[in-house]
Amino acid sequence: MKRIILFLSFILLLAACGSAEESSEAQSNSQDLTITTGAQGGSWYPIGGALAELMNKNMDGITFSSVPGGGTSNPQSVATGKADIGFSYNSTLVSAQDGTDPYDEKLDGLKAVAKVYDMAWHVITPSDSGITSFEDIAENQMGVKWAPNKKGTGDEWITNKVIEEYGFNYDDIESWNGKMNFVSISDGLSLWRDAHVNLYSAHTLPPQSSFIEATMSVESNFLSISDEVLQSLNEKYGLIEATIPAGTYEGQEEDVKTVTMPMTIFAHEDVSEDVIYNFTKLLDEETEYLATVHQVFNNFDIEKAGKDTGIELHPGARKYYEEIEVIE
Question: Which residues form a coiled coil (predicted)?
Answer without folding.
Answer: none
